[in-house]
Amino acid sequence: MRLSVILLFCLNIVLLSSCKKDIDIDYHQVPSLYVVEASVSNTSMEARISKTQNMDDNNTKSDINNAVVVITGDDGSSNELKYMSNGRYYSSSKGTPGVTYTITIDVDDEHFTSTSTMQNKPTINSFRVIRKKIATEWFQIGELNFQDLPNEDNWYFMHIYRNDLGYRWAVLNDRNDPNKELQQLFNFFREGDSGSDVLRDGDDLRIELYTIDQRVYDYFFSMQMMENTGTNPIPNFSGGCLGYFSAHWLVAKPFVYRAANVEEED
After folding, report:
1. Whether residues 92 and 207 fall in one domain
2. Are 105 and 150 in the same domain?
3. Where are the alpha helices (DSSP H) in the chain?
4. Which of 28, 43, 59, 88 has a CA between 20 and 30 Å from the CA of residue 151?
């Protein structure tokens, strides 16, 4: 369930600057909340269930193994996901485009539910890394081109992995260019930097493209805007848990980064 890598919840944010004396931070304990990351895809049905931790709790493991997780479709299908390990529930059943799926989760007298409609298969046309001068500095940028699905409203999620770790992600809709080739640019790094974010020769990139429904797009778009708004993502579940449920089709493209192959653009 590749979407889960970018699911971050910041319940308490404290910014400290220009201060050399010790400061006591007074914060309130908040009730632990369930976090659900669930999906129906062209390969399987999965859910991962965990709980948030308080700032003074060093226990970061959360193995929820007593949940009942059921995914039903408006086509009459029903699948109860089997507990695997580390809060993960799984079924090998695949999603069907056009079907609206409902997930229900019952755990410790709590009941959570969400719906999502399975989308059609997307197509990646090309991916490359370019170098581009912005003002006085050079940047390396990932350029993903893919074909919009014709004659329907579409929403997309894109995730780039670097050596199997999440590297960049974005969401996009086809409102401005329906039925055409769509493009998403990713700011990789500024040339001359030497931090861990800089790509190295031989790095394995995997570009993943998902077709998602509008509810999931709205969730991740609001998550993308968190830094500017200072708010949590819009709820995707009823019942009071955090997280999302997405019925999507996923395609992936491998790419090996070579500095010698980076193309310069005006």
Report:
1. no
2. no
3. 214-224, 226-229
4. 43
Q: In terms of DSSP bridges, do strands 110-117 and 100-107 run parallel, antiparallel, or are they unpaired?
A: antiparallel
Same domain, 115 and 129: no
Cβ atoms of 159 and 3 closer than 8 Å: yes
Spatial neighbors of 18 by CB under 8 A, at least 6 apart, are: none
What length is written for the chain? 266
- Residue range 159-169, pLDDT digits in tens: 999 999 999 99
Helix/strand/coil for 225: coil
What is the tens place of the pLDDT at every residue in 131-159? Answer: 999 999 999 999 999 999 999 999 999 99
Name the residue with tokens 């974010």: 197
What's the domain count of the chain? 2
Which of 18-22, 145-149, 221-225 is predicted with the least confidence, judged by mean pLDDT? 18-22
CA atoms within a 13 Å half-sphere pointing along the CA-CB vector of 266: 0
The three-class DSSP label of residue 2 is helix
Pair (69, 172) in one structural domain: no
Its pTM stands at 0.86
Of 10-19, 36-45, 218-227, highest mean pLDDT: 36-45
- On whether both 128 and 259 belong to a single domain, the answer is yes
Is the CB of residue 243 less than 8 Å from the CB of residue 8? no
Least confident of 37-46, 111-120, 229-238: 229-238
Q: Look at the block and give the residue holding tokens 């708004």.
A: 229
Helix (H) or strand (E) holding 159: strand 155-162
Q: Which domain holds residue 259?
A: 123-213+251-265
Residue 232 pLDDT > 90: no
Q: Is 216 helix (H, G, I), strand (E, B) or coil?
A: helix
